[in-house]
């Protein structure tokens, strides 16, 4: 039989190293043991975390906090540190541990497969706020990224109101088939201003149009982009712009390319629009005499990690000497890839 390890009797220097080597989810669990354990973690944790703090609120029945290095990808469950689940009828909560968060006692249990704590709430959005306050206070860290749904749109405003550091990345997604309202779409496009990356993965309302100026977003990804018009494109200033579904015409795309050639959208590195009906020769003829036909196959990786294979396209050159390859992929997607290939520092 082994004896308990007297962690808090360890001298400060080795204690600092022990705390620094512990995973965030283990530290969160340890912090609930006593006021002393909570205080020790706050004062002895010195190294920075591997990743940025992400709020995952896209599920109305379960939200989570996680540290991640890859925005908008799959967050591994082992990287999650604390979850907020909605009470359900088929679980016995009586024997669960109670911990104190936000001035209230909360029932929690350990996910034994992945090691993080699950907390239970009548309202998961309120629970998400409480666990966010707890974790950011424990680690003295700000929220960098949010995955939001229609139910948790206001989390953006709430996070922005509680920290000076602006949000880096925001993704809106919803698993329901119900379209977003016009007010929700306008809020995302006008009032939500992440400084780096915005993903919109919501079904837009029927006949939706946005008449305002697009915010300056480094990386913009829109899953259902059939509402995006040429006028919208001409107000964009981004590095990567990806429209996974689009109704833009050949003429629209020619006019956008002319806009870029004349100095518009100067930071652009990748533009992708899945129109399904692109005529690359029509585009070439619309840009004469500038374009050069290119038949060689080339691989391109954008600053935000989108990988594209370029084949049978045209090269166009701006007055400042910057060259872009314009090509059509097998699925009808137009690609504009601006050379040279560069990387984006997200830190």
Automatic annotation (TrEMBL):
Record-linked Pfam families: F-box (PF00646), FBA_2 (PF07735)
Protein's UniProt name: F-box domain-containing protein
Signal sequence range: none
Top-rank lineage group of the source organism: Eukaryota
InterPro entries attached to this UniProt entry: F-box_dom, F-box_Sdz-33
Positions of the F-box domain: 4-52
